[in-house]
Design goal:
The protein is mainly α and 215 residues long. It is built from 8 helices and no strands. InterPro entries: Cyt_c_oxidase-like_su3, Cyt_c_oxidase_su3-like_sf, Cyt_c_oxidase_su3_a-hlx.
Length: 215
C-alpha cells in the first residue's frame, strides 16, 4: 500500500523553525481558540471596570489624570501602524511582491509599542502607582483606596495586553522566515493578521476607557 503524501501545509510547517511553526502556524483552530480567549478576557476586564466606574466615576476620573496618555497614544499609534503594514504585506503577497521589509517594519513597530508600554510602566513604578508587593502606593489624590482599584484594573489589562502583543509578534516570525516565497508567506501572513486583530481592538477600547476619563 502506497504511503499517503503529506499535505502541502504540513510540509510548510515542517520547513525550518519547526517548534515555532507547530505553536503558531497551526492554522485556523489555534487562531480561533486565541481569538476566543482574547475576547473573553479583555471583554470581562473592561466590563468589570465599567461597572465599578459607575459607582465611583469622579475617583476613577481623577486617577486617570496620573496616567501618561501621550506616551500611551504614541505606543498605540505604532500598534495601529503595524496593523496597516501587515495588511499591506498581505495584499503584496497576493500580487507576488516581496514582503520581507514590511514584516520587519511591523515587528519593529510592535517592539516600539512594547518599549512605550515598558517606559510607561517604569514611570508609574517611580511615581508609586504600580501596586506591587512591598511597593507603597503613593497616589496623592482623594480616596486612594478606591483609586487603587482603578490602577489594579489598569495594570491587569496592560499586563494581559502585553502578553497577547508578544504572541502576535511571535506569530510574525514564521511569515518572516517564508517571506521570500509568496506562496508560503501568504497563509502565514493571514494567520499573523488574525493574531494581531484583538491586540489592536483591545487597545482601541482600553485607551478611551482608562486614559481619557475626565479629559
Amino acid at each position: 500500500m502506497m504511503a499517503r503524501a503529506p499535505h502541502r501545509h504540513t510540509m510548510i510547517v515542517a520547513h525550518g523553525m519547526p517548534g515555532l511553526h507547530r505553536l503558531l502556524d497551526g492554522g485556523r483552530p489555534r487562531l480561533a481558540l486565541y481569538l476566543f480567549v482574547a475576547t473573553v478576557l479583555f471583554a470581562s476586564i473592561l466590563l468589570a471596570f465599567l461597572l465599578h466606574l459607575r459607582t465611583t466615576p469622579a475617583v476613577f476620573a481623577a486617577a486617570s489624570q496620573s496616567l501618561h496618555a501621550d506616551l500611551a497614544a504614541a505606543g498605540g499609534l505604532a500598534l495601529l501602524t503595524a496593523g496597516l503594514v501587515l495588511g499591506g504585506a498581505d495584499r503584496a503577497t497576493r500580487r507576488r511582491r516581496p514582503v520581507t521589509g514590511r514584516i520587519v517594519l511591523a515587528l519593529l513597530l510592535g517592539l516600539l509599542f512594547l518599549a512605550c508600554r515598558g517606559l510607561e510602566g517604569y514611570l508609574e513604578y517611580r511615581a508609586g502607582l504600580l501596586p506591587l508587593p512591598g511597593q507603597p502606593f503613593a497616589y496623592d489624590g482623594t480616596q486612594p483606596h478606591q483609586a487603587l482599584l482603578f490602577f489594579h484594573f489598569h495594570h491587569l489589562l496592560a499586563g494581559l495586553h502585553l502578553l497577547f502583543t508578544a504572541v502576535a509578534l511571535a506569530a510574525l516570525l514564521p511569515a518572516l522566515a517564508a517571506s521570500r516565497d509568496a506562496d508560503r508567506a501568504a497563509p502565514r501572513l493571514t494567520l499573523a493578521a488574525g493574531y494581531w486583530a484583538p491586540v489592536i481592538l483591545a487597545w482601541a477600547a482600553a485607551y478611551p476607557a482608562f486614559y481619557l476619563l475626565g479629559r
